[in-house]
Design goal:
The complex is a heterodimer of chains A (105) and B (219). Chain A has 105 residues and is mostly helical. Helix content of chain A is 68%, strand content 10%. Chain A contains three helices and two strands. A two-stranded antiparallel ribbon of chain A has the order 1-2. In chain A, β1 (93-97) and β2 (100-104) form a beta hairpin. Chain B has two domains: 1-146, RNA polymerase sigma factor, region 2, helix turn helix motif (Rna Polymerase Sigma Factor, Chain: A, Orthogonal Bundle), CATH 1.10.1740; 147-219, Arc Repressor Mutant, subunit A (Orthogonal Bundle). Classes of the chains: A mainly alpha (105), B mainly alpha (219).
């Protein structure tokens, strides 16, 4: 692997340049990794449940929203009940007087 | 200072790049040796089976080396720490893809190297976009510097540091971290030929700068 004496000697001398993290740093890294890894492991179950429940919750929310909007719309713009005029205008009354038949709207 | 974690924005830690590195790491594993540490092999099996507690063994075994590799790339203790942490978490998240029976080392070294390379690439882009007249003041604390005990090591460090980026990273992995060409190629996603080429160019420059140390007796 080593190509020549120069690199070989340099490699021997450069070995001491490896960075040595102190105990505080290594402990901190271990603690943070442990915390994140256990978060991940706990998150696994929660995520599984969330994957199942999320679509159900979204569907229910959409239905509720549609119902609320529908009820609100009906309250704002109630459909008018047909009045007497409307009924009478749509029907004709035939009146027979002296043998003649008159149609009255 | 922007930490690696915040820079990567949590889940978006260059996920594409990481996936690439994880997948290519799987390919590289086929060439690597089998795991000769039975405790490590058992820990990996346990972690794969869902025992997160067993991951502690792997973390404690590899932390120092992983931090050293990260430091060599970013030259900053806080970022090296963040990178190491992120690398271990990513390795855990992808442990299902890890081939049982292989040593964990090459895999985690590869992940941390890729995260480090992504970070400096991001920083470079960020620096280009940044509109500033004055360079930020150099801030270093003692933890940012390795314990360079003698002038010889300090000179070698300065010489390596003066190299262009990829030559510097390859030279550091070869000279300081003592990895071979094949290992460096697997860690950096470069071909072995490119690694040799970077190393050869670095060698020329280092020889110029350090001629008085190791002489010019072998060209």
């Amino acid at each position: 692997m080593i190509d020549d004496t120069f690199l070989e000697q340099l490699r021997d001398d450069a070995r001491q340049l490896q960075y040595e993290p102190d105990d505080v740093m290594t402990t901190r890294i271990a603690a943070r990794v442990r915390a994140r890894v256990s978060e991940e492991a706990a998150g696994g179950v929660a995520q599984l449940l969330a994957r199942w429940f999320r679509p159900v919750v979204v569907s229910l929310a959409a239905l509720s929203l549609a119902a609320v909007v529908g009820v609100g719309w009906l309250e704002l713009y109630p459909e008018p009940a047909p009045g007497l005029d409307a009924v009478s205008s749509s029907q004709t009354v035939d009146v027979s007087v002296g043998g003649d038949v008159f149609s009255v709207e | 200072m922007m930490s690696a974690t915040s820079m990567f924005g949590g889940a978006s830690i260059g996920s594409l790049a990481l996936d690439r590195s994880v997948f290519t790491a799987e390919r590289a594993q086929t060439r690597s040796a089998t795991n000769e540490d039975p405790i490590e092999a058992r820990a990996i099996t346990a972690v794969k089976a869902g025992d997160a507690g067993s991951y502690g063994y792997l973390v404690s075994k590899y932390t120092k080396r992983v931090v050293s590799i990260a430091w060599g790339i970013v030259r900053n203790a806080a970022d090296a720490e963040d990178l190491a942490q992120e690398a271990f978490v990513k390795a855990y998240e992808n442990i299902a893809r890890f081939k049982s029976g292989e040593p964990f080392g090459p895999w985690i070294y590869r992940i941390v190297t890729n995260l480090g390379l992504d970070l400096i690439k991001h920083r470079k882009r960020f620096r280009h976009e940044e509109i500033t007249d004055a360079a930020p003041a150099e801030r270093r604390d003692r933890a940012d510097l390795p314990a360079i005990t003698n002038e010889l090591a300090a000179r070698i460090d300065r010489a390596i540091q003066s190299l262009p980026e990829m030559q510097r990273i390859v030279a550091r992995l070869y000279l300081v971290e003592q990895f071979g060409h094949t290992e460096i190629a697997a860690m950096t996603n470069l071909t072995e030929g490119t690694v040799r080429s970077h190393l050869s160019l670095a060698r020329g420059k280092l020889k110029e700068k350090l001629a008085d140390l190791h002489g010019g007796n072998n060209d």
